[in-house]
């Protein structure tokens, strides 16, 4: 039994992220475990109020999970003072207006990334939340992936010596939708609907780089739309106007160089859908979603370049797996619990709208870098 119940208005729960990660794997999972435990030992459970554009679809989700409250009327849901928190996992384009409405009514706000499509809007949201004095947060789930938590542990333990470079490889083949259905929503491939891999992924890279390696000081990106035509959810052909691959180079304070490829037009020849290789003077690591492998300076082999002879050693086998040493939670749920503690007892929460705005800034600068064909400095916002 929980000691207290907090109403959470959840908008966009018929979508991929809103449903699976936020409703099922976070909010409902928190309730199943008996709520969020606060520092005084008391427990808080969450009362989801589902909001959607289509009453039947949002009602289906509610029925599936025995949720009593659902509506198509966002204003009505926000008007109830017991609904303390507004959460937004709608398409990016719909986020700013709905979130500003919640802020105006004094609701604490938590949203998916990116917080907005433009820096101007992202800053507007951060300022509005600050002026209204409401708690605000943005999803930065990649920081809580097992693989990246292990990488952070290595950094904190001084494993790398001086970190030199980071190589990130993210992506997989997203089907065009004609002979096999696409595994991502079609709005992702239309710039006019808030799509594009830069706006989708660079906000992630901004907080990953900033939290693990330091402030990003400059960005250069080459962006492509490799597949110009795709088929949507109804089987209709459409023009893919948004970027589907981006090749970025980032300079980080202290001289670390990061390169990250992001692509929906690449076939996976990796162990995981995202991997970061970090090379340092004393050791290297390759971290993915779950796993992290290391090679220490003392166990580094001595390859010699000679194309005339076949490779005799298996380079991949020369790495060692980093052990779990702890139990890892779902990253989305972990961040939800952090946010609830932030709202109710002012516990620290670094993933604010200001941090979210830095993510949008990096995406915007990357697109501009491509358009202008030059490296751009990342000014402090
Ligand atoms: N944290 C992550 O790793 C991650 C991953 C994917 C997507 N996202 C973010 O989550 C948000 C939702 O992405 P998704 O992949 O779940 O999308 P989706 O298309 O599956 O879901 C979108 C949701 O928004 C609603 N919606 C509201 N207005 C809409 C409109 N005008 N057109 C279409 N849908 C509308 C839909 O009903 C649906 O509930 C995006 O902002 C995206 O950037 C985050």
What is the topological layout?
Blueprint: E1 4-11, H1 16-32, E2 36-37, E3 43-51, H2 55-64, E4 69-71, H3 74-79, E5 83-88, H4 95-104, E6 108-111, H5 119-132, E7 136-138, H6 146-156, E8 163-171, H7 197-212, E9 216-224, E10 229-231, E11 237-239, E12 245-252, E13 256-263, E14 274-280, E15 283-287, E16 292-296, E17 320-321, H8 331-345, H9 353-372, E18 376-377
Parallel strand pairs: 1-3, 1-5, 3-4, 5-6, 6-7, 8-13
Antiparallel strand pairs: 2-3, 8-14, 9-12, 9-18, 10-11, 12-13, 14-15, 15-16, 16-17
Helix pairs in contact: 1-8, 4-5, 5-9, 7-9
The chain binds nicotinamide-adenine-dinucleotide.
Nicotinamide-adenine-dinucleotide is lined by residues 12, 14-18, 52-53, 89-92, 94, 112-113, 139, 141, 185, 187, 200.
């Amino acid at each position: 039994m929980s000691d207290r119940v907090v109403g959470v208005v959840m908008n966009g729960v018929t979508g991929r992220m809103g449903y699976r990660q936020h409703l099922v794997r976070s909010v409902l999972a928190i309730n199943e475990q008996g709520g969020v435990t606060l520092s005084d030992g008391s427990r808080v459970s969450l009362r989801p109020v589902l909001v959607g554009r289509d009453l039947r679809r949002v009602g289906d989700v509610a029925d599936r999970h025995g949720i009593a409250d659902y509506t198509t009327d966002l204003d009505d849901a926000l008007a109830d003072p017991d609904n303390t928190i507004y959460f937004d996992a709608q398409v990016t384009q719909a986020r700013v207006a709905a979130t500003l409405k919640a802020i105006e009514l004094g609701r604490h706000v938590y949203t998916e990334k990116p917080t907005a499509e433009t820096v101007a809007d992202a800053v507007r949201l951060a300022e509005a939340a600050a002026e209204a004095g409401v708690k605000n947060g943005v999803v930065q789930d990649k920081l809580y992936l097992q693989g990246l938590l292990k990488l952070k542990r290595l950094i904190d333990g001084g494993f790398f010596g001086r970190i030199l470079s980071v190589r990130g490889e993210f992506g997989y083949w997203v089907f065009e939708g004609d002979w096999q259905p696409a595994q991502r929503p079609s709005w992702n491939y239309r710039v006019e609907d808030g799509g594009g891999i830069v706006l989708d992924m660079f906000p992630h890279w901004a907080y990953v780089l900033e939290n693990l390696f330091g402030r990003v000081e400059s960005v250069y990106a080459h962006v492509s739309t490799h597949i110009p035509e795709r088929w949507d959810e109804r089987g209709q052909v459409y023009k893919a106007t948004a970027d589907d691959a981006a090749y970025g180079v980032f300079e980080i304070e202290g001289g670390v160089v990061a390169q990250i490829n992001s692509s929906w037009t690449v076939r996976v020849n990796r162990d995981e859908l995202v991997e970061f290789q970090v090379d340092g003077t004393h050791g290297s690591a390759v971290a993915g979603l779950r796993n992290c492998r290391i090679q220490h300076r003392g166990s580094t082999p001595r390859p010699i370049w000679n194309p005339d002879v076949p490779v005799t050693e298996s380079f991949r086998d020369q790495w060692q797996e980093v052990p779990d040493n702890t139990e890892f939670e779902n990253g989305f749920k972990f961040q939800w619990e952090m946010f609830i503690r932030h709202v109710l007892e002012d516990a620290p929460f670094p993933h604010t709208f200001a941090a979210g705005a830095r993510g949008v800034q990096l995406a915007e600068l990357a697109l501009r870098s491509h358009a202008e064909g030059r490296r751009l400095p990342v000014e402090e916002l």
